[in-house]
């Protein structure tokens, strides 16, 4: 009988992990996967479904091939990644109490180091995007704030795993739609510039 309880608990734990988002209310997740004791560093960015979006390997995330993707901040003697660039746009990264983990090939789990959201204001100020795209990004970020509140409320209220999964699916669809709106704004700017 104890084996049966262990099996049930293991199954429930696995379902809970699946219902949790990688980075609820963010566009991307950043992973620092230092493999000790070999001093092998790999850095990865995924979307909310754990699909790899960017990857680099270097001893220092601020140098070499990683410099094109990762942006670093220096706090005293420590250096950490505080932003990423995906498809020419900058995203701010920060720690988040709701961050999750992804199961990689090989079957092991890695925990998110930080969660990243489109920095529309900076992208606009640096001339990376038009005002039209900036407005679409700000609308997406406002929607992501609502998603975060919904997600935190669902966790706090003990929402069932099935309902959490349904909530996350709705939020993913809404994010996909909002990102398509951003892309349409960018495409319209390209057409108008022609």
UniProtKB/TrEMBL annotation:
Sorted UniProt keywords: Coiled coil, Signal
Signal sequence range: 1-21
Coiled-coil positions: 137-181
Keyword check for Coiled coil: yes
Domain of life: Eukaryota
Protein name (record): Cyanovirin-N domain-containing protein
């Amino acid at each position: 009988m104890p084996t049966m309880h262990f099996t049930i608990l293991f199954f429930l734990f696995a379902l809970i992990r699946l219902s949790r988002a990688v980075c609820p209310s963010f566009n991307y997740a950043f992973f620092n996967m230092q493999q000790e004791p070999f001093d092998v560093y790999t850095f990865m960015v995924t979307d909310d479904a754990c699909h790899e979006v960017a990857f680099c390997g270097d001893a220092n995330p601020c140098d070499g091939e990683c410099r094109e993707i990762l942006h670093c901040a220096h706090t005293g003697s420590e250096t950490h990644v505080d932003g990423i660039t995906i498809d020419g746009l900058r995203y701010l990264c920060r720690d988040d109490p709701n961050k999750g983990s992804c199961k990689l090939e090989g079957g092991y789990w890695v925990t998110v180091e930080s969660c990243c959201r489109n920095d529309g204001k900076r992208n606009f100020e640096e001339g990376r995007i038009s005002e039209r795209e900036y407005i679409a990004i700000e609308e997406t970020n406002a929607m992501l704030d609502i998603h975060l509140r919904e997600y935190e409320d669902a966790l706090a209220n003990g929402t069932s795993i099935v309902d959490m999964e349904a909530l996350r699916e709705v939020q993913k669809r809404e994010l996909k739609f909002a990102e398509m709106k951003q892309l349409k704004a960018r495409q319209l700017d390209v057409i108008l510039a022609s």
